[in-house]
Design brief:
Layout: H1 10-16, E1 20-23, H2 28-36, E2 41-45, E3 56-58, H3 67-77, H4 93-105, E4 114-117, H5 130-144, E5 147-150, H6 157-165, E6 172-173
Amino acid sequence: MPRSPLRIGVTELRRHRFDAVVILRRSLSRTLLLTLAGIPRRIGYTAPRSRWLLTDPVPEPAVRLHRADTYLGLLEAVGIGGDRGGCDFIVGEDDRSAVLRLLAERQRAEGQQLVVLNPGGNWEHKRWPAASFAALGNRLIRECGAAIAITGAPSDVPLAESIAAALERPPLIA
């Protein structure tokens, strides 16, 4: 798995002698690192703090876009076309059957609305608080009669359990 540019030093980046870099995140520190590494072509959105370090500044999209479309906009700005056909998430029959078995095992009532909460994320400091997920879950239970499922990675189990402990009805933790 490639390391983050912030974990790669200027010297290591220089050694690769990259011709160009597309900077996906509006980050002064990353853009500065890539500039100090001597990468001659730096393509990125014109974030106020880092636009002066870009060789190919791209105007911010006028409307909010899906992240994939936002990234494709950077490539299109430098002449690399992208497929704007959308993102499909296809669930196979085996996966569908496994989920239905899991729900049946947990005795979710047939036809009962299921709301899935996914409280984890890459950056803990950007997460919505666990108490807020619990408050939302309880409101959905009370006002909509919903069953709650909490999903995430194995590292999210303690977070899921803390939310589950505050819910009025036990959720499915998957």
